[in-house]
Amino acid sequence: MTYGFLVFYRYKLMAEQEAREAKEFWMKFSEESWPKELRIVGDYRYAWGTEWSGFLVVETDDPQMFFKFWPHFRDKTRWYIENTRTVIGIKRDSDQLLESQ
Q1: Which DSSP category does 78 fall into?
Q2: What is the mean pLDDT of the chain?
Q3: pLDDT score recorded for residue 99
Q4: Which of 32, 61, 73, 77 could form a disulfide with 81 if both were Cys (CB 3.0 to 4.6 A apart)?
Q5: What residues pair up with 84 in beta bridges, in sequence order?
């Protein structure tokens, strides 16, 4: 079973230099510290029609991995992420899609 996490985020107001540092931090963090069991399948910079700055789409077969990692993620990004909201779902497999039609 695959679990999906839609993580909306809102940036804090930042000066240009801070924004560059935040971007550099995210690039390094996502490459070096992100667990391989949590697959980022989408990284969207805008969430038009909402108050959010963007959102991530993360998938995993072990939802506990997300819950264990989340406090670490929030601690590391708190300096430039003002708020987050997470929606969790379970991905349908192809058999379920055929049954629902």
Answers
A1: T
A2: 92
A3: 62
A4: 77
A5: 9
Q: What is the 3-state secondary structure (H, E, C) of 1-70?
A: CCEEEEEEEEECCCCHHHHHHHHHHHHHHHHHCCCCCCEEEEEECCCCCCCCCEEEEEEECCHHHHHHHH
φ, ψ for residue 72, nearest 5 deg: -65, -45
| Type of residue numbered 79 | W
4: which residues sit within 8 A by CB, 6+ positions away?
57, 58, 59, 88, 89, 90, 91
Please state the pTM of the whole predicted model. 0.85
Tell me which amino acid residue 39 is: R
Residue 89 and residue 95: Cα distance in Å, rounded?
Answer: 17
CB 22 within 8 A of CB 30: no
pLDDT at position 92: 86
